[in-house]
Amino acid sequence: MSSPNLNNNLGNLVRLMPLALDDLPPHPKLDHLTNGEPVVTTEASDVQAKPPRTSLSVFLTAILSEAVIFIDSTVPATFHEGSEKPSAPSTSKVRILKREITASELSNVPWSDSKVNRSVDDKVKEQGEAWFVRKSQHVNRKEEGSVDWSELDFAIRVDHNEHEGEYTPALFDTYRVLDWDAETLALGQLGDFEDIRLRVYEMCHKLPFPLTTRTFPVLVAAAKTGPTESVIVHVPIDIRKLPEAFYSNGRNIREGDSEVKRKKPVLGAYTSIERARILPDEKIEWTMAVASDAKGSLPMVFQKMGLPGAIVKDVGMVIDWCSSKRKGMEGT
Hints:
Mean pLDDT: 91
Strand content: 25-35%
Shape: globular
Largest sheet: 10 strands, mixed
Number of strands: 12
Distance between the termini: 37 Å
């Protein structure tokens, strides 16, 4: 998939500021909500006053396009190259890049003048975003320390969050809150995007003592952008007033089926983009960009120190998970 020119490259969707429920496309579970509150419509004028949601096709095209532009254009043009690090059992080194997106830059984002308009509190515009990127290239073969395209695509695009729960030891729950599976299936292809999925999850992490558990509510969009290209984007979302949520609204404290699931979590935020594709030399290029805020009492300076190492480690965990799946298939 070809990338557009780098114009107004910072979009308003793939940001660290959580989406509101009103920002989402239509869904049966959202029809009765405005600003997260139930809507009481006793008169025709009340119904007319409710603002229409952005259509699913427009929303998906906007968020997926923004993610592709960020990885394909913004990262190579504006990020600073860092060191290479190993990530066993992967035989490929992982390169780290970074960039601080300042509050001044974010204030110029077209928040309310885009395909999907968002209303943003002025205080949010005063906060910057610390982005880190990892890039790696892998031999496109089913062999120790590497993966072929079908294995990596299955691991990171197909049911990404459920698979992440399998290969990430610190994740104790990947709770699916909502999905648009039937709707995206009916949509079919949108331009260069196909096999599209849109879902909401609560990603729940255990942290070392004395830190409490973290829940990251995210909207996840994934799609193929060609026969051997894909994009997966996570955006934080505020679902505290959504009855279907489990951790964000405290329902887990009453209904959790284990001690860790009954703990009151700190609600964190992260946004990420993963992009995978086969290069002309037949190697697989795998890129991931992330900005996060674990909230709570963990200072941001320590979060910035730990994040590069954490995303490097992810490469080895995925390679190891794919290898285990491969060996399991070979043994049957």
